[in-house]
Amino acid sequence: MSKSTLPGAFRLDGARALVTGASRGIGRACALALAEAGCDLVLSARTGAALREAAEEAEGHGVRAVALAADLADPGAPSALVERAAAALGGIDVLLHNAGVLPTAADGSPVLVPFQHSTQQDWEHVIAVNLNATAEICRAAHPHLAASDRASLILMSSASGVMGTPLLDAYAATKAGQISLARSLGVGWAREGIRVNAVCPGWITTDMTSFASGTEPFSQWLMAHVPQGRWGTPEDVAGAVLFLASPASALVTAQALVLDGGLSTPDGGLGAIPKPPSPFAA
Ligand SMILES: NC(=O)c1ccc[n+]([C@@H]2O[C@H](COP(=O)([O-])OP(=O)(O)OC[C@H]3O[C@@H](n4cnc5c(N)ncnc54)[C@H](OP(=O)(O)O)[C@@H]3O)[C@@H](O)[C@H]2O)c1
Hints:
SDR_fam, alpha/beta, Rossmann fold, KR_dom, single chain, seven-stranded parallel sheet, 7 strands, binds NADP nicotinamide-adenine-dinucleotide phosphate
């Protein structure tokens, strides 16, 4: 899409945006959408090579894109990243905090266990990346966003934060926490001109969900619970993020925007449709 095809209210020419978790998946698609809308960008994640590739692709839209590596699990790293991003861009107007993790085993696979069998260590790692880093980023970003005349802070939550998700209890708790924080900050910072919203995707095909999207009958069983009956794509999420970042959503704050194909609607209107047996059944 060329720049001129975006309706004006969705354009962000000259805005300065920080995107975390921008090396792949949802964050990368969102960063590219923001670049296409005219934002200069700082892209962040741990993996420098993937980040630089994403930054190069963003620059193809004629904007500036800077890659800054950071591990947000390290206390102090989130606020240091915000300061480095503000220095690199000369301020911050849009902050998409998207980096997030599932509880992960040593071999990289997700830990999917009933809560009573999960460990406190799993809980603490997920809380550190998904919730503690969120708090630190929001606090550090406040003065920069308050100095902007088009400030939008977007937290990448999840439909699991709206519904809860057994076997991913810690993850769901952090995502509910992000929704609550977006609502509190959206109200608390409204008179300073800072909009704060959460985005709550359902099942989206990325590295994070490849354990499910690439496995049958698991994938089919999951999609049987989604009224639209399909996996979402990172680009599906990028459209919503662009809306919340741009003047098109000028009156939207303290909201949780759910993009889940109807998954979190009670029974999704699919009550009468037979579903395959659960792969978790004994
Ligand atoms: N996929 C879904 O179905 C889905 C649904 C709802 C919500 N979400 C949320 O959407 C966000 C992105 O998910 P995704 O599916 O795109 O996941 P993904 O493909 O695993 O990407 C995660 C991103 O976060 C970065 N990251 C992970 N740990 C980090 C850390 N400690 N410090 C800094 N960066 C870190 C990763 O880069 P490095 O590994 O290079 O650091 C990567 O860029 C997450 O917050 C997730 O909870 C995803």
